[in-house]
Amino acid sequence: MVSEENSAKDLLMQEVEARDLIHFGMIPEFIGRLPVIVGFHNLTTNMLIQILTEPRNAILPQYKKLFDMDNVQLKFTLGAVRAIAEKALARKTGARGLRSILEGLLLEAMFEAPGSNIENVEINSQVRAAWSYVELQRATWNYVELHGATSNCVELHGAERSCIELRRDA
């Protein structure tokens, strides 16, 4: 899955030795503390998407579980996941950058969701335009007047009584 443009660089990086790093400017005392020198491959957008979604401890399912604890459904569209991966690729932060992007994106929703009427948090491809865009879908509640009910009654304007029930819209 390594892109062709990176494959030539990656092949060269596999041949790097300690003397090459010293020639590059690193001090020998530091290089001597490195038992193994390994060249890493650059990640592609598809690799970052896999990292976000596929491993057992992937970060997107972790965030979904976090929101589930507050009875909020967290949804990501494929376009949003791709946009997040592309942003990490542009930042050149690799997979570690994915967490900071998601933290910044979901921060407001994580603080607003607990104890609120938010039912769904949807991240879609509009996230490309404004990285702070997160759609919070709130439950709507209506006060329905109950005739002949005895519970939930409140007195209005002195003698008038009105009984209401809080019902969630479907």
Automatic annotation (TrEMBL):
SUPFAM superfamilies: P-loop containing nucleoside triphosphate hydrolases (SSF52540). Residues 43-129 form the Clp ATPase C-terminal domain. Keywords: ATP-binding, Hydrolase, Nucleotide-binding, Protease. GO terms for biological process: proteolysis involved in protein catabolic process. GO terms for molecular function: ATP binding; ATP hydrolysis activity; peptidase activity. GO terms for cellular component: mitochondrial matrix. It comes from the Eukaryota. This is ATP-dependent Clp protease ATP-binding subunit clpX-like, mitochondrial. It comes from Hypsibius exemplaris.
